[in-house]
Every structure is written in structure tokens, then in C-alpha cells.
Amino acid sequence: MRPHYKNENTASKIANKFSPPSHNAAGNSASKIISGSRAPYNLKWSKGAYFNAKVDGLGATSATRYGDNRANYQFNVGQAEYVPGTLIYVFEIIDGWCRIYWNNHNEWIWHERLIVKEVF
Which intervals carry biased composition (Polar residues) (predicted)? Predict the structure, then answer.
């Protein structure tokens, strides 16, 4: 969260509302992530993004997760399609499926479709 300064103008206030997700420290699991490589297979849930990544040359289709807990769930593929090069923020990975955009969003992309660009 940014401090509020008296001389902050309206344009900068509006621009700050559309900034990327929070980049809070992700904990010990973040040490598994290497820039330029594929996303790892599992990472615990985080309030802040672990990393951002670009969709690889094959593109990606997202999925919606259904189920009542971590042990009883399934993914329904086909929610949205992403072209190669689309920038994605990742907050959690369960069995290869990456939770994207923000920490409680129910849209997931398969980890092998993402190439890590920046680790937070």
C-alpha cells in the first residue's frame, strides 16, 4: 500500500488503481522459482503474486476449479484463451494448475504453458 501525499494529483491516484497485483513476499516456496524457466508444479496459496510469466508460443486455455476442498476438486477447461506473450500473475499452483490474476480468483492455467519472467 502506498502512503498518501498531499501533492498527489488525480491522474496519479487513478493510475495507481490499475497497477499490477500486490508483490508481497511469497515465503520459502518462492525459492523454487527461476526466471526464464517453466512454472513449478506446486506452490502454496499466497496473498501476493509469486511471479509473473508469459504464455508460451502455444498459447493457453484457462480452467475453472470446482470442488469443496483441496483433496476433492476438478478443473473444467475452456473458460478463456490466451495468446502467446500474454502476461500472467501467479498466486498459487496445485498439481500443475496455476491460480492467476489475484489470490481469490478462480481461473487457472496449466503450468507448462507459462514461462517465468519476474519473481517477486
Answer: 8-29
With b for 16 or more beta-carbon neighbours within 10 A and e for fewer, the 41-53 pattern comes to eebeebebbbbbb
Residue 4 resides in a domain: no
Taking residue 107's Cβ as centre, other Cβ atoms within 10 Å add up to 16
Q: How far apart are CA 111 and CA 115, in angstroms?
A: 8
Q: Taking the model in full, what pTM does it have? A: 0.69
Residue 73 lies in a domain: yes
pLDDT, tens digit, 9 for 90 and up, residues 53-95: 999 999 999 998 888 776 788 888 887 899 999 999 999 898 8
Is residue 95 within 8 Å of residue 70, measured between CB atoms? no
Number of structural domains (the chain) is 1
Instruction: Name the β-bridge partners of 87.
Output: 54
State the cell numbers at 64. 475453472
